[in-house]
Amino acid sequence: MSAHAVTAAVWTADPTRAALARTLWDDGVQAADIARRVGAPSKSAVVGYAHRQRWPPRPSPIGRQTEAKPRVPLRPSRKPPAAPKPVLRPKVAPTPRPPALPPAPLPSGCQYPYGDKPDWRWCHAPVEPGRPYCRVHVAVCYVRRASLVAA
Ligand SMILES: [Zn+2]
């Protein structure tokens, strides 16, 4: 007796596994999946057993291509879901940027900027201890939550 015959005898002799195979067969589960579920040595063992037991034949898998019946995975996939494919956009030449200006040196006083490019300047007033701004601009830049809620 070969190892396959012993294995086949085990799964077909077990009424629970044989009944599970029949249920899966009737549900249209693929023979290879049934074989994995019931411990059959191969999908051919399942198909042969179904034939010997005169289980009703199932429609050809070729004809099932158009059916939209979603397959439920027998066991959760260990592979992470595939990353979405990147959206292909037409390549556009990058717009040339003007050369970056060197950063303006930080002022010795308040760092609050006035004005807009190119005509702007620092506040330069004496700063509050531990802050980069003068008292007026600390009040402008550091808003308490309570005043945000009240506003
Ligand atoms: Zn200031």
What does this entry look like structurally?
A hairpin with a 2-residue loop joins strand 1 and strand 2. The model has no long low-confidence stretch (mean pLDDT 80). 36% of the residues lie in helices and 5% in strands. The protein has a two-stranded antiparallel sheet with strand order 1-2. The chain has six helices and two strands, in the order ααααββαα. It is mostly helical and 151 residues long. Among the domains are: 3-52; 113-150, no CATH class. Bound molecules: zinc ion. Residues 110, 112, 123, 125, 133-134, 136-137 line the site of zinc ion.
Key words describing this protein structure:
151 residues; single chain; binds zinc ion; elongated; mainly alpha; two-stranded antiparallel sheet; 36% helix; 2 strands
Poorly predicted residue ranges: none
Work out the strand percent.
5-15%
Shape: elongated
Write out the distinct hetero groups bound to the structure.
zinc ion
Could you tell me how far the N terminus lies from the C terminus, measured between alpha carbons in angstroms? 87 Å
Output mean pLDDT: 80
- Give a quick account of the main beta sheet: strands, pairing sense, barrel closure: 2 strands, antiparallel
If you compute it from the alpha carbons, what radius of gyration comes out, rounded to the nearest whole angstrom?
37 Å
Spatial ordering of strands, largest sheet? 1-2
Q: How many β-strand stretches? A: 2
In short:
The chain is mainly α and 151 residues long. The protein has helices at 3-13, 15-27, 31-38, 43-52, 135-141, 145-150; strands spanning 113-116, 119-122.
